[in-house]
Automatic annotation (TrEMBL):
Keyword Transferase (UniProt): yes
Record key words, sorted: Transferase
Source species: Pelagicoccus albus
All residue ranges annotated as the Glycosyltransferase 2-like domain in the record: 5-153
Protein name as annotated: Glycosyltransferase family 2 protein
Amino acid sequence: MPTLSIIIPVFNEFGTLEQVLDSVENCGLQDYQLIVVDDCSTDGTRDLIKDKLASRIDVVVFHDSNKGKGGAIRTGFEAAKGDYVVIQDADLEYDPKELPKLLAAILAGEADVIYGTRFPKGEAFDVTPTWHRAVNRALTHYSNFFTGLRITDMETCYKMFPTPLIQSIELEELRFGIEPEMTAKIADLGVSFLDVPITYNRRTYEEGKKIGAMDGLRALYVITKYGLRSIFLP
């Protein structure tokens, strides 16, 4: 059984997916399962996977319709066979060289769940515009208010869980709302969380970044929804 399952949700990442696979293969991990979920790409990514990349991937799933990042992540969780599972974006914002550090922390028993934070406490990471850091900080603090956690980057892509733990909860969100949903539902289980600082190379909207203002509003709704549910329906 592989130690780590790496889930890559993909939607229209023709220009970066191969580089991400290269980076995963050269990040220093030896024992992992690579899962790619194509969320009905329309830019040639599906053909790239079928014609060139499939032999390098352990599990490939093609969605027949676009289900959103959350839907792709949920599909990936179902296919995970490793002891632990982590999400890796298909663009070049998150560097897979950070994955061994996250895995080492969880294997050492430092916490049950590891988040790779772009905004460590006490450090001014100038990796995103001021408005983006402010929104992320506000959403993270609001999430922490309900969960009781002290994490610094709730919206980070790099979330590493024990596979049986994440597979034990029912996820509902289809888009980026899955980030606060996972955090809320896993926190309800009473497990420990740890932030581990990571590097980050922000992609612009011109380069294909997909999250937008409506996703921020949805995150507020999701945090409130599951936060109140946890209080009134324990």
